[in-house]
Write a structure and sequence with these properties.
single chain; mainly beta; eleven-stranded mixed beta sheet; 3 helices; about 40% strand
């Protein structure tokens, strides 16, 4: 499969030696919506986590540069003499990310959890269970010579009735290493875009990870992010096969998921929540603070299929409802043809006030990808199957659609 050519947006950040350096700049904070919470205030929840469950699967060390027992601290950035952006990204992306995840059809309908994992009580009450409680311990080596020493583990916990925290049990545990990506573009803020081939069928998963800062009126400093994974089947006609959405918060330095979050997790299930109105998506948009990374036919001998997002020129674009699927959590996904033999994979996160964060990728039918991420008063990221470029930027909607 040809490699991707990415272009992404980098956001200026606060001091990287504090965990708030994971966040977008303060100017953007007001645009970011509050995280989904239960009726009780999330700020009152204790930072309690459970002891390791005997059923938990240990993380296998994938490369000598990354250890499953290492705790990555932001202070290690100062020890990195080479790629400063990678070191900052590594410090900000590393840690314990807990929350909830859900799967959606290509049309945006939530997918119920398998019947064999749903407690009998839910079936008796006629309650549909649509969300997995998840953990995503992530570790990136800030001192790595090449920006590929990153791995994470996605853990799904079995649903429980009430707050049966002590009964929290791992259902599945899957790990990924950046070295297996077809393309990977990263920003110092902790955001990234990756294209993951899935075999043996010709399938590509495009993962968009966007980080947000706390609202000004929030009592706690909450580092939150969303990850949206678009599954694309690469046949004669490329088609979107489904979506995975993860809403996560940062709970501390990397500990390989040694504790289960249980009821202490500040996030709540969201799959059945209200979907974004498509009118919030269509219209004329303008980008600012754009950053991009591009992959050419010949890979860089040092960075290969990995690239950092560097400043790029702003642009204007018109977005219509073609191929747009709206989701809960103020998110949208778009998948449609884009020129001769190419198609567009797009994810957006509406921040409010006419702004959004977006990730856009242009992919060719043979698997090549172009991608971009932008932050506006609406932010957007762009992708393609053969990643040729990835870009990020802030977007502001100039006018609404008709």
């Amino acid at each position: 499969m040809p490699l991707l050519s990415p272009q992404l947006l980098l956001l200026s950040l606060p001091d990287a030696h504090h965990h708030r350096a994971l966040l977008p700049p303060p100017a953007c904070a007001g645009f970011v919506p509050s995280s989904s919470c239960s009726p009780s205030s999330s700020s009152s929840l204790p930072s309690r986590r459970l002891t390791r469950s005997p059923a938990r699967t240990e993380l296998r060390v994938i490369s000598p540069e990354t250890s499953s027992t290492v705790v990555t601290e932001a202070a290690t950035i100062g020890e990195q003499p080479g790629n400063t952006t990678w070191a900052e990204f590594a410090a900000r992306v590393s840690g314990e990310w807990d929350g909830f995840g859900a799967e959606f059809t290509a049309g945006g309908d939530p997918v119920e959890l398998p019947e064999n994992v749903v407690p009998e009580a839910y079936r008796e009450w006629g309650v549909k269970v649509l969300d997995w409680q998840t953990q995503c311990p992530t570790l990136a080596d800030p001192s790595a010579r090449a920006p590929c020493a990153l791995h994470y583990r996605l853990v799904r916990l079995l649903p429980t009735v009430g707050c049966e925290a002590d009964a929290a049990t791992v259902h599945t545990s899957h790990q990924r290493h950046a070295a297996s990506a077809a393309a990977f573009a990263y920003a110092a803020a902790g955001s990234y875009v990756a294209a993951w081939p899935k075999g043996p069928a010709p399938v590509l998963e495009v993962e968009h990870c966007l980080v947000r800062s706390p609202d000004d009126d929030e009592e706690e400093e909450v580092v939150a992010r969303v990850r949206v994974v678009q599954t694309v089947a690469l046949g004669r006609e490329a088609r979107l096969r489904g979506l995975k959405v993860f809403s996560e918060q940062w709970y501390g330095p990397f500990r390989n998921g040694e504790q289960l979050g249980g009821c202490a997790v500040r996030e709540t299930g969201f799959a059945a929540g209200e979907k974004l109105d498509v009118s919030e998506v269509v219209g004329q948009w303008e980008t600012t603070n754009v950053a991009a990374a591009r992959f050419s036919g010949e890979l860089d001998p040092e960075t290969g299929k990995f690239a950092e997002l560097s400043p790029d020129e702003p642009s204007k674009l018109s977005r219509d409802a073609d191929g747009v699927v709206t989701l809960p959590k103020q998110l949208w996904s778009a998948f449609k043809a884009h020129g001769d033999g190419e198609f567009l994979c797009e994810v957006g996160w509406v921040l409010g006030g006419g702004s959004a964060v977006t990730s856009r990728c242009v992919v060719s039918k043979d698997g090549d990808v172009k991608a971009s991420v932008s932050d506006f008063p609406r932010i957007e990221i762009m992708f393609a199957l053969v990643l040729q470029e990835i870009a990020t930027a802030y977007e502001s909607r100039v006018s609404e659609g008709t």
